[in-house]
């Protein structure tokens, strides 16, 4: 799997930045405009999926190894649980919006507002993006693994699959 | 209202083609058409949050399905359906459809008001596309809409509901995703299989 043609690679290298920035925008403005952590995280993951389709799996593996992705996944889940647990310490109950109620009320309709909601959006976006990237990466690795074993089992099918690639 | 019926008929036709066609790739493309129709419908029902999530997840799922489909040599289904299985599924779908029609039976506003005066506990489902706070005075969603901005400070009420009022749901969703990723990476990893093969 060496990737696709030059046209696809060029277009993908232009578009990937736009998709990534759009995902960050969706996450950061989730408390003001439609969107949120889940949708933004999926958009972040899809920018990496575009890279994986256009340039091949090895290219993505160098840029974002699966170990780093699983660490990002764990970090997102930990941050979300931490924000919820800190509500127990500062606000008195689990998941209470302590930042908005006590420390940082902010101005409504501005970027810094709504207390813990943007922080939770960032944590969920990190988590969802990393985990959906991991899903597709793992499935792709698994698919390649199965295809590698086919030639040993049946030589005729193996040669036809090899010519196709 | 006509746009909803057009979209519904489009989605039903796409679903029938997806089930009936012999070619796996066109079946996957029809599933994509259903998803985009659903996304358009959410947009016309004034739910942009759901529409964004739907279209994005649909694209990602389509990529996975198309990659899985074209990586196989055989993309055509051979063989006939079982008669008994088809009959059972058609009967089940008909029962669900009829009970859905019964539940969504359109009632006018005055009719609902009269029913509520007679039976205060009775709640009817509102018309398709009508928010439930229009017909139920004590609905929880009414409270969220009135006090959401004041209590959470978030301009997007959907974000204030899923991350403040109903944050436990989001925690559960995140846990489900996390657990499924752990299961997938543990089952599908290569290294363990190599370790298992080496002693042989």
Outline the secondary-structure elements.
The complex is a heterodimer of chains A (165) and B (200).
Chain A: H1 6-28, H2 37-55, H3 57-63, H4 66-90, H5 98-103, H6 116-153, H7 155-164
Helix pairs in contact in A: 1-2, 2-3, 2-6, 4-6, 6-7
Chain B: H1 2-20, H2 24-44, H3 48-70, H4 83-103, H5 109-118, H6 140-152, H7 157-165, H8 167-188, H9 191-197
Helix pairs in contact in B: 1-2, 2-3, 6-7, 7-8
Tell me what you see in this structure.
The complex is a heterodimer of chains A (165) and B (200). With 165 residues, chain A is an all-alpha fold. Chain A has one domain (6-164). Helix content of chain A is 78%, strand content 0%. Chain A is built from seven helices and no strands. Chain A has helices spanning 6-28, 37-55, 57-63, 66-90, 98-103, 116-153, 155-164. Chain A is elongated, with a radius of gyration of 21 Å. Mean pLDDT of chain A is 79; it is low at 150-165. By secondary structure, chain B is mainly alpha-helical. Chain B has a domain at 1-74. Chain B is extended and about 65 Å long. The mean pLDDT of chain B is 79. At the A-B interface, helix 2, helix 4, helix 6 and helix 7 of A face helix 3, helix 6, helix 7 and helix 8 of B.
Can you describe this structure in just a few lines?
The complex is a heterodimer of chains A (165) and B (200). Chain A is mainly α and 165 residues long. Helix content of chain A is 78%, strand content 0%.
């Amino acid at each position: 799997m060496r990737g696709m043609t030059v046209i696809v690679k060029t277009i993908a290298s232009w578009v990937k930045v736009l998709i990534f920035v759009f995902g960050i925008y969706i996450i950061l403005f989730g408390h003001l405009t439609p969107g949120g952590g889940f949708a933004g995280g999926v958009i972040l993951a899809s920018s990496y999926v575009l890279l994986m389709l256009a340039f091949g799996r090895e290219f993505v593996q160098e840029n974002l190894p699966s170990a780093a992705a699983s660490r990002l996944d764990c970090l997102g889940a930990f941050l979300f649980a931490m924000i919820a647990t800190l509500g127990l310490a500062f606000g008195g109950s689990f998941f209470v919006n302590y930042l908005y109620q006590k420390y940082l009320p902010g101005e409504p309709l501005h970027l810094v507002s709504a207390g813990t909601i943007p922080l939770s959006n960032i944590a969920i976006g990190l988590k969802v993006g990393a985990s959906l990237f991991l899903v597709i990466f793992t499935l792709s690795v698994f698919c390649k693994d199965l295809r590698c074993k086919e030639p040993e089992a049946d030589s005729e099918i193996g040669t036809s699959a090899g010519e196709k690639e | 209202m006509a746009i909803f019926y057009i979209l519904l008929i489009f989605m039903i036709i796409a679903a029938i083609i997806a089930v009936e066609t012999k070619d796996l790739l066109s079946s996957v493309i029809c599933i994509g058409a259903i998803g985009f129709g659903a996304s358009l419908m959410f947009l016309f029902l004034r739910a942009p949050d759901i529409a964004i999530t739907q279209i994005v997840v649909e694209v990602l799922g389509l990529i996975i399905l198309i990659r899985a489909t074209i990586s196989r040599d055989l993309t055509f289904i051979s063989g006939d359906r079982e008669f008994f299985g088809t009959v059972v599924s058609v009967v089940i779908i008909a029962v669900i459809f009829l009970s859905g029609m019964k539940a969504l039976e359109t009632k006018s506003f005055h009719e609902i008001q009269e029913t509520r005066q007679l039976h205060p506990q009775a709640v009817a489902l509102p018309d398709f596309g009508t928010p439930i706070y229009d017909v139920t005075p004590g609905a929880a969603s009414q409270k969220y809409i009135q006090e959401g901005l004041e209590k959470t400070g978030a301009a997007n009420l959907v974000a204030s509901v899923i991350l403040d009022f109903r944050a436990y749901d989001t925690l559960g969703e995140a846990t489900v995703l996390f657990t499924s990723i752990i299961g997938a990476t543990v089952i599908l990893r290569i290294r363990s299989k190599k370790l298992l093969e080496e002693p042989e």
